[in-house]
Amino acid sequence: MPAPRAHLALLIGLSTGVLSAPSRGAELPPCSEPIRYAADWFPAPELDHGKRSAEVTALGNAGQKKTGKGVQLGHVMVQTQLSVEPQASCAGIVVRLAFVKPVLRIASEFPEDSCSYARVLNHEHTHVRIWRDIAAQFRQLRYPWPERASSATVLNHARQALATLTRAQDEFDSPEEYARNNLLCGGEIQRLVKLPSMASAGG
């Protein structure tokens, strides 16, 4: 089944008008890179093991335009925030990606010492690693039209680029990955949670 985008809730801070340096900008030299992209480190997420799979699924699907049809056994959820800030040492700006309150959930049906818990946790840790890869790729972005940049156009470019980068999360959540997870642990996952023919081992 298609995986819900439980890992992503995008918050964009838009401002309007032509980009300009801060009030002290007249005293600063122009930046060699007038528009720079930066991303915070994706922190270790809070672990939530207190909700049953039905609630994990409901939380993962909340606010999503398209939702999965199956049960979510776990997921990583985070808010991503984009902002424009002045560069500190020269006249230019930084487009910053921040990660707000990441949470890693595992359905409470899985005991912490079980094979199924370890399997779902491993899957979700891969999502965390993908987020860190996305942050690294975001830092390498370049704005293609700096001579006619505005806050709105720069943020829109960053939003589109981030949406493209986050496709890696959905690509990892493939039907093959789910099927492989559901076959591991000697059928323990199916015994602990009533699953349809294919369920989401994570998201």
UniProtKB/TrEMBL annotation:
Protein name as it appears in the record: DUF922 domain-containing protein
Signal peptide (UniProt feature, chain positions): 1-20
UniProt keyword terms in alphabetical order: Signal
Superkingdom, natural source: Bacteria
Keyword Signal: yes
